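SAMPLE LOG
Freezer: B-3
Tube label: C17
Construct: single chain, 162 aa
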Amino acid sequence: MEPRIEERAARPYAGVTRAVTMTTFDQVADRIPEIIGWLAGRGAAPAGAPFLRYHVIDMDRRLEVEAGVPVAAPVEADGAIRPGVLPAGRYLTADHTGHPDELVQVTAGLLDWAEREGLAFDVADDPEGQRWGCRLETFLTNPMEVPDPSKWETQLAFRLAG
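STRUCTURE (predicted):
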């Protein structure tokens, strides 16, 4: 893992948000094909790799997670699928090649690195859990093209404070 800081522009997307637990997590990740199909039905193509955006994290109880797909231009809301904009700013970013189950340890390593470097994240703690300004897992590998999950590429990006 090679952490780096990137400046990112705001980016529109279409997404679906769900409150899940660690045991029901697939319920949100499994919605990505539905979002891609929804975009295709409106003549819009994805403008980047699909992602999961963590809004609220309380590992003991629930996670509020959004499955999203970047688009070139904003889209209109329709049912459960809604438009959004990933915020611009400085992001601590790292790429990982390996099984998705490893992402918990990779994230912990990235958070530890940031603490040692004195970096603060765009996050607030409240009774519901940690509320993140923008915390992303972007899936750079298409599982249909690379069936071996130990070879999947994922990018983590966490918005920095200020």
